[in-house]
Amino acid sequence: MLMSNPQESTPSVKDLVKVLYGGERFGNHVDEVWPNLFIGDMSVANDRYSLWKLGITHVVNAAHGRMHCQGSHDFYGSTVEYYGVPADDSPSFDLARYFFPCAEYIQSALDTAGARVFVHCAVGVSRSASLVLAYLMIHHHYTLLEAINKVKEHRAVAQNKAALLKLGITHVLNAAHSKRGSIGNQSFYGHGFVYCGIPADDSTHFDLDVYFQTAADFIHKALKTPDGKVLVHCIMGMSRSSTLVLAYLMIYRHLTLKKALQKLIQKRAIYPNRNFLALLLDLDLQLTRNKKTCQIL
């Protein structure tokens, strides 16, 4: 039996941060990180046809009952086995109490012939990744660092500047500037990117419309730059960021709100909150009035 020095095998927080923020891969909506074990986000989880194409037989929802995550036994029906973990992605939430039950569920599922397990949360980065790391440590006896590196062979678990460069991104618009969970700012991206930060809350009372013109101007100017490519993001890439992109399409591309929505959902699942939709509807009405006034003049 091989023995190791605990001091050598136990990483510090600094070691873990270095590993998590290293690497060059950029996560997809879903990745197979272990044979027949997948990590992904809610855009895939909410799409039963995509799960069917992947051959998924079991779903572990690490954001059970949370906003935008539709997963439940009723949603998936009798063709998919469902396991819900009602976790919050917050520093105070005790996810550890679910490590062993969830690991047992995943292992039991993978022991079933032909099984394929999909573990997801909202973004597919924090809660779901934590449960998969716990599974690899409990059932495959990986150290935490080994488990992180194994998962990172297939999926990114943090924002990655090298990946943005590979994508040709030149401009970054962060719709969650200075908010918890968003690491982006000008010092983070450095001189390699042009950065614009909008400190928006994804709430039912935040007046995001005060930033519509600023965001649209930034995107428009960036796209007029030779080889300019813009990344617009927030925390989940669903509400704040999509709202600003919709506003840009309406202001500079002269699309109605309905047509802008149709164009965007062809490429990505988006979920602007009701407040933001109401603000966009106001913008739609204002732009329509302005257009009619110009026609009269």
Automatic annotation (TrEMBL):
InterPro entries: Atypical_DUSP_subfamA, Dual-sp_phosphatase_cat-dom, Prot-tyrosine_phosphatase-like, Tyr_Pase_AS, Tyr_Pase_dom, TYR_PHOSPHATASE_DUAL_dom. The keyword Hydrolase applies. GO terms for biological process: negative regulation of MAPK cascade. Keywords: Hydrolase, Protein phosphatase. The active site is at residue 121. GO terms for cellular component: cytoplasm. It catalyses: O-phospho-L-threonyl-[protein] + H2O = L-threonyl-[protein] + phosphate; O-phospho-L-seryl-[protein] + H2O = L-seryl-[protein] + phosphate. Residues 28-182 form the Tyrosine-protein phosphatase domain. Residues 97-155, 210-268 form the Tyrosine specific protein phosphatases domain. GO terms for molecular function: MAP kinase phosphatase activity; protein serine/threonine phosphatase activity; protein tyrosine/serine/threonine phosphatase activity. Belongs to the protein-tyrosine phosphatase family. Non-receptor class dual specificity subfamily. This is Dual specificity protein phosphatase 13 isoform A. It comes from Collichthys lucidus (Big head croaker).
